[in-house]
Design a protein that fits this description.
mainly alpha
């Protein structure tokens, strides 16, 4: 289910014509998406509320492409389990970051 949500977000943006002009730009933006995923999932694993995380994302990325993807990343992260022990939390952060980066690279 999580993969379907993320794929549809990246896919719909690609179809809408928001694409990058060069592969190097795509990598830079996928790096940014991975950084956002890392930050958001860290918030999730630390028990921060979805509302607070979403508000911060909206302030950082006030409109457009990055905001739309960042909000989708927040929604996706908060559909994941929050773990109690630090090792599992770190693994969840790393796996989510890798998932978002991989899906971004696939579409851009």
């Amino acid at each position: 289910m999580r993969k379907i949500l993320s794929v549809s977000v990246f896919g719909s943006i690609f179809v809408a014509g928001i694409a990058f002009s060069a592969p190097s730009e795509a990598r830079v933006n996928c790096d940014q998406m991975a950084d956002i995923a890392h930050e958001v999932m860290t918030d999730r694993q630390n028990g921060r509320s979805m509302r607070d995380t979403m508000n911060d994302i909206r302030e950082q990325y006030d409109s457009g492409f990055t905001n739309e993807l960042a909000e989708a990343i927040v929604r996706d992260a908060y559909n994941n389990t929050r773990y109690d022990d630090s090792e599992r939390q770190q693994r969840a952060v790393e796996e989510f970051e890798n998932q978002v980066y991989g899906e971004c690279v696939q579409y851009f």
